[in-house]
Design goal:
about 180 residues
Length: about 180
């Protein structure tokens, strides 16, 4: 799958990054792109911070493309900022990021200005998907991960993974541990 974005591999941007704390390491000497977030599950080991399943795809920077296969690894939710969607990793280190177009939105976060949506719900209810499946291929046809959908006006909507919003809104707060 070709990428239409350029790579931002400015090492200075990652000076605060340390070794990524994945439960199982990814195969070495390859580039891995954080593609999506899977579900959240209880962390049996420390019973405090839950684990988030991260979806990786192998990235071929010289060809500017991704593999079709996906790899799953668990990471403690406290470390989720190390592996944001678009982060490029190699040998369990964050080494770059896909350069996304940045846009600013004014969001109304009152209760009736957003809803939760999943690919699975759309398929079951025969409703339009939040984004075309050809634009952003997921590993499961009926992905159950929840996304937040905000109304922007002019029939436009902003859709983001709810885990992304959740971790940004609560940061490293202890409220996140209890949520």
């Amino acid at each position: 799958m070709p990428l239409s974005t350029e790579i931002l591999a400015n090492r200075e941007e990652f000076d605060s990054y340390t070794q990524i704390e994945l439960k199982d390491v990814l195969p070495p000497n390859k580039y891995w792109l954080v593609w999506w977030y899977g579900g959240i599950r209880k962390n049996i080991k420390d019973n405090i911070q839950p684990l988030v399943k991260i979806v990786f795809r192998e990235f071929f920077p010289n060809e500017n493309r991704l593999s079709e296969e996906v790899y799953y690894r668990d990471i403690c939710i406290a470390y989720l900022d190390q592996v944001q969607i678009g982060t490029i990793c190699k040998n369990n280190m964050a080494i770059g990021r896909i350069k996304f177009e940045r846009k600013t939105f004014k969001l109304n976060i009152s209760e009736k200005s957003y809803d939760f949506i999943s690919i699975n719900d759309c398929c079951k209810n025969n409703v339009d998907l939040p984004f075309p499946s050809t634009l952003y291929k997921l590993s499961y046809k009926y992905d159950k991960n929840q996304m937040l959908r905000f109304e922007l006006g002019n029939q436009n909507k902003l859709v983001i993974p709810s885990i992304d919003y959740f971790t940004k809104a609560y940061g490293s707060s202890e409220l996140r541990v209890r949520a």
